[in-house]
Each structure stands twice: as C-alpha cells, then as structure tokens.
Amino acid sequence: MEVLSIPFRLQQNGRAERVWQGSEAHVQQQAAQFVATMTGELPLSPFYGMDDPTFRTVRAGEVVIGMAQFHPEVDVRSVIVLADAGGMSEVYVDVSGGEEEAVTVQQEQSVVFNA
C-alpha cells in the first residue's frame, strides 16, 4: 500500500509524492519524522517525538526507545550524536527494516539536525 511521503512533497504533475509502506524509503522517513518531531507537537500522540527541540541534549537512548515504542517494525542499529563547541548537534540514525536491506538515514529529509 502507498502512503504519503514525509515531508509532504508535490511531484511535477501536482500529485502528492508517495512511498510504499514498509519500503526502505518509508523506514527512513519514519526515523526522520520521529527525530524531527518535538514531544507534544502532535496533539493526538502527545508522547511521540524528542524532548529537546533544540537538539542540544539529544540522548541516543531516547531515540532507540521512542522508535521501539512508536515504530516497532524499524530496527535502530545505531544512534550517533555529535556536538561541537558552538552548541551545534548532528544526529545520525542508522536504521533497517521493511522490505529492503539496511539504510543510513543521512539525506535531505534525514535525521541530521543542526541546532
């Protein structure tokens, strides 16, 4: 079954971009969406997302536990949080799941955030 792409995008023909549920792209998007969402941001799912909207104190365990709770079909292989002296953070989440082999979520809509 096809589901809407996250983030929402339009194709050149004006149709909403979609991905196959359970595909490699869908798994990547689920991880990116979880890390990009602040806890409490979604009223119907108030515990979904990360506690730190500035990504200054991201804890790898929070990503692993949250993904296991909200996306149990996604296997989080590793979470790397890199912080520099200026307070900037990058979060790299390596995930696998779905119908294809492991992928690293490090693209445009990826889980690389600078705050």
Write the layout of secondary structure elements.
Layout: E1 2-4, E2 18-20, H1 24-36, H2 60-70, E3 74-83, E4 89-97, E5 100-105
Antiparallel strand pairs: 1-2, 3-4, 4-5
Structure explained in plain terms:
The protein is α+β, with helices and mostly antiparallel strands and 115 residues long. The chain has one domain (23-105): Roll (Nuclear Transport Factor 2, Chain: A). Helices cover 21% and strands 27% of the residues. The chain has two helices and five strands; from the N terminus they run E-E-H-H-E-E-E. It has helices spanning 24-36, 60-70; strands spanning 2-4, 18-20, 74-83, 89-97, 100-105. The strands form two sheets. Strands 3-4-5 form a three-stranded antiparallel sheet, with helices on one face. The chain has a two-stranded antiparallel ribbon with strand order 1-2. Strand 3 and strand 4 form a beta hairpin. The longest helix has 13 residues, at 24-36.
Question: How would you summarize what this structure contains?
Answer:
21% of the residues lie in helices and 27% in strands. With 115 residues, it is of the alpha+beta class.
Number of domains: 1
CATH class: Alpha Beta
Sequence of strands across the biggest β-sheet = 3-4-5
Please give the count of helices. Answer: 2
Mean pLDDT: 77
Radius of gyration, in angstroms, nearest whole number: 14 Å
Share of residues in strands: 25-35%
Order of helix and strand elements from N to C terminus:
EEHHEEE
Major sheet attributes: 3 strands, antiparallel
How many individual β-strands?
Answer: 5
CATH topology: Nuclear Transport Factor 2, Chain: A
Q: Unreliable runs, pLDDT <50, ≥5 residues?
A: 100-115
Distance between the termini: 35 Å
Structural class: alpha+beta
CATH architecture, by name, is Roll
Shape: globular
Kindly state the percentage of residues in helix: 10-25%
